[in-house]
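Can anyone check this?
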Amino acid sequence: MGFIRGEPQANETVAKQGVARGTWNRNRLLQISTAASLNEMIAPGALVMLSPVVTGTLFGTKTLAGVLAGSLVSGVQVSVGSTPYDTSPPNAFRPGAKKDVEFMGK
């Protein structure tokens, strides 16, 4: 019985059965998951690498500049949107906390 793509519960069951039988092989499981991960990343990687080449070739440099600028702006937006709201260190504003950094000599 092999690993089933997209079904973590079934994969966990397969791994537990292997542990129960004493046939669990950590290196083999890592090999399977690494190969599957690499196969899943082929299409997104090709999209990232080939879209500027195809856009520049078919539509010209002005369109390519627009695509690159748009992807940069949308990437920044996604990164800002995915950060948690409370990104300050836990003890940064706690009353009585020792201040390690002086601001303007104060």
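Reply from J.R.: I decoded it. The mean pLDDT is 76.
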